[in-house]
């Protein structure tokens, strides 16, 4: 039986991944902060696909809590085949001189440090198990910088660098490492970025067909289902109507 650990599984890309991995018969460890939502999602997929699911209610920014909760798993749950480092967010779109420093802290602590805390623990399990695949959810914001993207883009550029670093460091252990970098995906992402302003969030996707979370889950499934000798290092996926962060074809 194969096991996947997915962070940020209460909505969007993480939830879609949990759905797809459950469909594929994976046992799963799902991590997020919203307890009710996570437990509901886990129960739904466990019942529907007859797979075992453990829910870990944790804030990935909290190094001690993350370490305790992961290390507290029973030994056989530490046989993780796939880690999807997905938990992340953007907050605000102000120019650098007007940015909110607590938003900056949250983005850096979640997207970079949280990803590192989880990876440190799970990569050690993978080394002991002599196998594993880490999928880092980066972004096109890790490849380009757009106005007001400053700190969010910096965190995703960091994920891009960490993906390359992990690939090098974990090579001797036979562990696969992949970055999946989405462009515009309609999830809770923009509502979070604009702090609940739904009208502003909807405008991001106005006049074009954005990706949906399922598109990214499908790409993640593609990378993890390649033969043992194949590693996809880096993948960029955008809506057909988005050429880059600035050029879109809106009707
Ligand atoms: P959503 O807002 O829909 O989902 C974000 C998930 O991250 C939620 O499950 C949330 O769960 C979790 N999360 C956020 N902060 C924490 C935390 N501190 N600890 C634990 N979990 C946390 O957005 P997406 O699905 O779109 O985003 C998923 C990833 O994809 C992010 O890394 C994002 O940067 C990236 N991405 C998104 C794109 C898009 O256009 N949507 C494009 C490119 C990349 P909870 O609140 O319950 O903790
Ligand atoms: C999310 C995509 O373009 O809003 O990472 O930065 S974008």
UniProtKB/TrEMBL annotation:
SUPFAM superfamilies assigned: NAD(P)-binding Rossmann-fold domains
GO molecular function: oxidoreductase activity, acting on the CH-OH group of donors, NAD or NADP as acceptor
Keywords in alphabetical order: Oxidoreductase
InterPro entries in the record: NAD(P)-bd_dom_sf, Sc_DH/Rdtase_CS, SDR_fam
Coiled coil: none
Annotated TM spans: none
Similarity-based family: Belongs to the short-chain dehydrogenases/reductases (SDR) family.
Protein name: NADP-dependent 3-hydroxy acid dehydrogenase YdfG
Organism annotation: Pedobacter hartonius
């Amino acid at each position: 039986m194969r096991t996947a650990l997915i962070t940020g599984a209460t909505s969007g890309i993480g939830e879609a991944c949990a759905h797809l991995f459950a469909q594929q018969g994976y046992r799963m460890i799902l991590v997020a902060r919203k307890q009710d939502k996570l437990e509901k999602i886990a129960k739904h997929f466990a019942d529907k696909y007859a797979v075992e699911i453990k829910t870990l209610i944790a804030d990935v920014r909290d190094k001690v809590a993350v370490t305790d909760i992961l290390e507290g798993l029973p030994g056989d749950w530490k046989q993780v085949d796939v880690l999807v480092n997905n938990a992340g967010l953007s907050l605000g779109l102000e120019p650098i001189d007007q940015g909110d420093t607590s938003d900056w802290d949250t983005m850096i602590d979640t997207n970079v440090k949280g990803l590192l805390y989880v990876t440190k623990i799970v990569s050690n399990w993978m080394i002991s198990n002599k196998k594993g695949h880490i999928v880092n959810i980066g972004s096109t914001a890790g490849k380009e910088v757009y106005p007001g993207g400053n700190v969010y883009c910096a965190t995703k550029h960091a994920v891009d660098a960490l993906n390359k670093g992990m690939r090098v460091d974990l090579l001797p252990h036979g562990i696969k490492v992949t970055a999946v970098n989405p462009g515009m995906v309609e999830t809770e992402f923009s509502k979070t970025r604009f702090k609940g302003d739904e009208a502003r969030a909807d405008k991001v996707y106005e006049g074009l067909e954005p990706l949906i979370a399922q598109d990214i889950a499908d790409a993640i499934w593609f990378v993890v289902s390649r033969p043992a000798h194949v590693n996809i290092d880096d993948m960029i996926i955008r809506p057909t109507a988005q050429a880059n962060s600035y050029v879109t074809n809106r009707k």
